[in-house]
Amino acid sequence: QVQLVESGGGLVQAGGSLRLFCAASGRTFSNYAMGWFRQAPGKEREFVAAISRNGFSTRYADSVKGRFTISRDNAKNTVYLQMNTLKAEDTAVYYCATGTSIYYGFGSWGQGTQVTVSS
């Protein structure tokens, strides 16, 4: 089992930027693809971005392409989500998760970090 802790959320104005962090502990971090998901009030959790075990492959939701960048540092057991040009509709609780690949198998979840974008 991998334990995940997200951080970096906060309140930002529309057009601004935030960088989210997800620190992993427990089993070998580099054995897992990693993903970011988000859940807005009253909505289901949705996929945001994912990155392969070695960081060479990434996948993004259409709604964040060109604005968000996922990356990872296996030496630091950390995955990042750089969010630029934020919009009010990006407001949500953001979660990281381990994955079997960048397409499926997302299992262990963190507790989430709140991102609020004011318009």
Describe this structure in words.
With 119 residues, the chain is mostly beta strands. Helix content is 0%, strand content 51%. It contains no helices and ten strands. The chain has a six-stranded mixed β-sheet with strand order 2-10-9-4-5-6, with no helix packed on it. The radius of gyration is 13 Å and the shape is globular. 34% of the residues are buried. The model has no long low-confidence stretch (mean pLDDT 96).
Strand order in the largest sheet = 2-10-9-4-5-6
* Derived structural class: mainly beta
Spell out the helices and strands N to C.
Answer: EEEEEEEEEE
- Determine the N-to-C terminus distance: 39 Å
Mean pLDDT metric: 96
What percent of the residues sit in helical stretches (DSSP H or I)?
Answer: under 10%
Q: Report the β-strand fraction as a percent range.
A: over 45%
How many strand segments? 10
Contiguous helical run count: 0
Shape: globular
Q: Give me the Rg, rounded.
A: 13 Å
Largest sheet: 6 strands, mixed
Low-confidence stretches: none
